[in-house]
Each structure stands twice: as structure tokens, then as C-alpha cells.
Amino acid sequence: KTWSMSRKRERESVMQHWGLNTYLYGPKDDLKHRLLWREVYSPEEEVQLRTLIVEAQSRGLRFVYALSPGQDIVFSSSCDLTLLKRKLRQVSDLGCQAFAILFDDIDHSMCQADSEAFSSFAHAQVNVTNEIYRFLGEPPVFLFCPTEYCGALCSPSVSKSPYLQTVGEDLLNNITVIWTGSKVISRKLSADCLAEVESVLQRPPLIWDNLHANDYDSRRLFLGPFKGREPQLKSHLRGLLLNPNCEFEANYIPLHTLGSWHRAGEEERKGEGGPEGRQMGGGNEESDYCPDRALSAALHDWMEELNQPSEGASTFRGTSSVAKLPVFPLNSSSPPSSPTKGEREPGLSNHEPPGSRPGAPSGGCRGQKAQGRALCGGKGLLSESQVRLLVGLHYLPHEHGPSAQKLLQDLTWLKSNCHLVSANSKKAPLKVDEWRGRASRFLSLCEDVAQLHCSVVGGANRAVLYDLYPYVWDLRNTALVAKAFICWLGCGKTTGADLLGVESEPWAFKGGISGEVQMLLPIGSSSELFSHPPPLFPTSRLYNIRPYHNKDKVCSHAQSSFAHPDVVGDRCLGPCLALCPEYSFILEDELGVCGCVLGISDVRSFAKRCQANWIPAMRDKYPPKGGNTQSYTQVSVRSGRGQRSH
């Protein structure tokens, strides 16, 4: 998302409170950061940028201005070098004293002029970087992001990379090199791996940490704690920057726990000064960083903010991202980018206002609430258990939280063991009870997800709503379908054999907990079931999908010239409900039944059964008038195998 200048200043204030000390400016919504890097800022843009710089410095934060000229710069061009100097001189005149030159995510090839002027791509980058560093007066903080910025991008390896060797040998020693770890998004950062890159670069690196970056997948959000980086790593680093979620309000826990990690390392270093200090650093639990303990502290503080009234601008519909709006800690800072976030693909819903719907099955009066669910609305408070559920469902890129793990484990087990409750099952009652008990717990967790969605929509903090809503919406709808699937299995209408062999293409689903749940559902590559974006205005309406029951009535409020009230329902829905009830599902909202979906597994067999059973019954129910025996027996049948009419 695009962060406004006011939000950037607000986050600077929070950073100061948490003990973080560096802010790197490199947002993708600033076209003059990367695409139009040659262009200087207008007077109006200068005012905004100067305000941000002054605000950061007034709070004791180092403001680092980053520029990414690598996509189209001609390294040997004196004109491009002059334009680069002009741009950075302009920012320097605004009060900025720290800079970063980024050459991440670009092609290694050089134009002919550069090939003639430099012996390698690394020599070209190093030559320009050194000249700019000297031009700016050798500022105390100057960062360089190499094209090979992680172990996975090094050829043939970190220790044998000619590119990194050139950077280590020729880049001026006071220029700091950015590194993301063994991968672009590293699960862990170890002292051994850092020692290896430090040896090649001939200086400690600065970590650009993508642990919480979500700009590469529009369905992922990371609310978990800063994890997998021991505070002792600081002795191998010049600094660490965290690349946060694109959504501003989603970064409270990541930054809060990062501050805890930073303070733990500071206390350890203080503890090295003597016996008293060692006691503080080594034996004091307060000085040891524990991700779970840091998460609990962050949740406690975030609860207060979540339930504070706040009117945020409804910018959650924007699609631009800030892969380079990173942040922080230690004594230096800097960044590499990730793939760009595309359009969101949340899921399945119905936004019609309450009212009559033609041809809908009815399980009761539309004025009655659906059984077991309450109306959801108004300004309420998010409970701590709901916030923990939210965090657990959107945890970290390499690790699910407890609630997500439970959701996936139960869904996998229930699907694999659905034969226990099939119609032909002869299993012991204890096994059946075990399946139904786990199913009940799974359905309860799905209901908790629905209530979480409701509470976020009805919460007092609208800024949080606008940033988190697409993700809560997406997960709510995925849980809705998973719940319907388990209810259907519980009806005993399948042996489980028809669920095997349904394998989706690898690209069919996005990542995150929603994508993993969808891959467990028997929908093949039909990911379009979940491709509906969230509504323009957040809604707190609750929906439920369940299997069709015989007690459900078929009715229709459609305007019709037929005298009999059942004729439209019998004509459009009756054959499927009578002959294939196991593939019929009902959609309910708070007011009752509001829609249905009907399926047929074998259209040819269904057509024969219609002719043999359904149509004769309809002839008896609706005697022909005037000798016309065909006006009421036309039934359209559609399936994946084609369409026939009878």
C-alpha cells in the first residue's frame, strides 16, 4: 500500500518509542526513487520530503534516502553520473545526511559502452558508488545494495562469487553492503553464514530483513514476532533493517518485537562490562530475547491501540506497494526489494441486500435469523483471544501460528478419514465419534474466524479495518467453504474415493493459510471460486454454506404467469434436489436462506432418471391444459460434460 507522509511521520514516532533508530526511505510509490530516478523533486515534493527528514531527525532517527538507478543507468555515461549527483545533492540540501544506492533485482548484462569501459558488472557498480560517496563528502552512513544480495543469488557460491569478491576488494571500506541472508527471505540468520559473507566483503554486512515483507503475494500478511535472529548476531553486523508489510497498521507486532530484540542485544553488551553487568546480561531473563514473550508484550500493547477509535482513510483498495519502505534498528540501515504485489484474490461472497431472491430454497422464513448465528454490527472491542487468532492465522512466511496449524491439521485428518462416517462404513462407534468430535472442533474454529471478521468490521479502529480487511475477508470466505465441505463429509454422502486424485496446478493458488486450505479442498484448479475481491465498503454480514436438507422447502418469489406457486421451483431446482441432493448446498445469512448451488455428477445418468422418475411425477402434479404436455416439462441440465435439455 501507499503510506501517506502523515503515516510515515506517525511510524517514526513509534520507532523512537520502541528504541529503533533508523528509517530508510525507498517507497515504490515514489516514481523518482526508481523508474524516474534522473528527475529532481518539484518544490512541492521538496517540502514533503524535507518535513519527513526534519521529523525523523527531531526524534533522534537517522533518515536514509535510497535511490535505485540500476534498471537503466549507463555506468560509463558522464551525463548519467551528473544527473545522479544532481539528484542526491538536492536531497542532501534538504538536510539528509545518510544515503543508499541500490542495485538489486536488475539484469547483470551491460550495454556496449559499459562493456568497453569496465571489466565487469561489479567494477561498473563499484566505480559509480565510490565516486558518489566521495562527491557527497563521505557521509558516515552510506549503503550499497549489490545485485547478488543473498546466498541464493551468488554464482557459484558466496565464497567463490567473482562479483562479491570485486565488491569486497574495490568498494571503499566505509561503505556498508546490504545482505538478506542465505535467501531473499531467510528463515534464520546464523553467525556462520554471516561470517562467510563478512570474509568475502571484507566488512560486516547490514541485514535487510524481508521476514515480514508481503509484497510478493497479495494474500499473505505477517503479524508474527521477529524470530530466527539471535541478538548475538549484532557483533557480526553493521546494522539491521526490517522490510515491513505493505499495510501500515499490520506492522505493530513486527516493529514492537524488533525493538525488543534490539534492546535485548543492547543489554547483553552492557552485561559484558563486569560481574554485575554479566549477571544482568547472562542470567537475567529480561535481557534474553524470547519471541513468544516478545509477542505477548506486543499483543498487550496492541490491544489498547486496536480498540482506540481511529478514523483512517479508506485506502485499502489501493494496489501500489512499498517494498522499500523499510525500517530499522542498530547503528546503520538499508534494503533490497521483492516482487511486486499484484491484484488481490480474496473470495466467495454475496453482497445482495436482504430481500426476496427468485428460486431460492427456503429452510424457514427469511425474517428469522439463521440458527446458531447472531447479527453482527456496531462498534465493539476485539478480545485478546481474537487478536491471537488473527496473528496465528497470519504468522510468518516459513511458519504458521497455533491456530493455523490446528486448522490445517484438522482439515487434513477429517478429509483423510472421511470414510469413517460414509454411508457404507462399518467402523466402530468410537472411531465415528472421534471423527465427529474433531469435525465439531473444526467447525467451531471456522465460526471463530467468521466472528473475527465481524469484530474487525465492527471495531472502533477504522484505520486497522481498512488495512486488514482484505485479509480477514479472504480467510473468512475460505473458512466458509471449508466448513461446508466438512459438513458435507459428515452427511456420509461420499466414501472418500471421489476426493482422491484431485490435484491442482502449482500456480492455481496463492500462498498463506487461505491458499493451503484451498489446496485441501476437492476443487482441482477451480481457484476462481476464491477470486472475488472484497466489497468497496466493508460489510459485517455473516454467511453460512451447508448441505441441503430434505426439510428445506423449494419456493420462488419470481413473477410468473403460472398459477401454481411451486411451478418455478419445481421446474428450475426440483430435479436436482430430488435426484442429486448430495450435491446441493444452501447459502444462509443472518435472516435465513438466501441462495443455493446445485450440482450433478453424471449428466447422462441424471437425464435418464429425470425421464423415468421426475417428469412423470410432474405430469401428475401439473395436469396439462388444452393438450399441451410439454410446457412444464422442459428441464435444462448443465455439467462439466456438457448440457442437455429434457
UniProtKB/TrEMBL annotation:
Gene3D superfamilies: 3.40.630.30, Glycosidases (3.20.20.80), STAT, domain 1 (1.20.58.240). Residues 1-266 form the GH84 domain. Residues 263-275 have a biased composition (Basic and acidic residues). It is an enzyme of class 3 (hydrolase). PROSITE patterns: GH84 (PS52009). Residues 263-290, 327-371, 621-646 are annotated as: Disordered. Signal peptide: none annotated. GO terms for molecular function: [protein]-3-O-(N-acetyl-D-glucosaminyl)-L-serine/L-threonine O-N-acetyl-alpha-D-glucosaminase activity; beta-N-acetylglucosaminidase activity. It catalyses: 3-O-(N-acetyl-beta-D-glucosaminyl)-L-seryl-[protein] + H2O = N-acetyl-D-glucosamine + L-seryl-[protein]; 3-O-(N-acetyl-beta-D-glucosaminyl)-L-threonyl-[protein] + H2O = L-threonyl-[protein] + N-acetyl-D-glucosamine. Keywords: Glycosidase, Hydrolase. Its EC number is 3.2.1.169. The keyword Hydrolase applies. It comes from the Eukaryota. Residues 627-637 have a biased composition (Polar residues). GO terms for biological process: glycoprotein metabolic process. This is protein O-GlcNAcase. It comes from Scophthalmus maximus (Turbot). The gene is si:dkey-183c6.8.
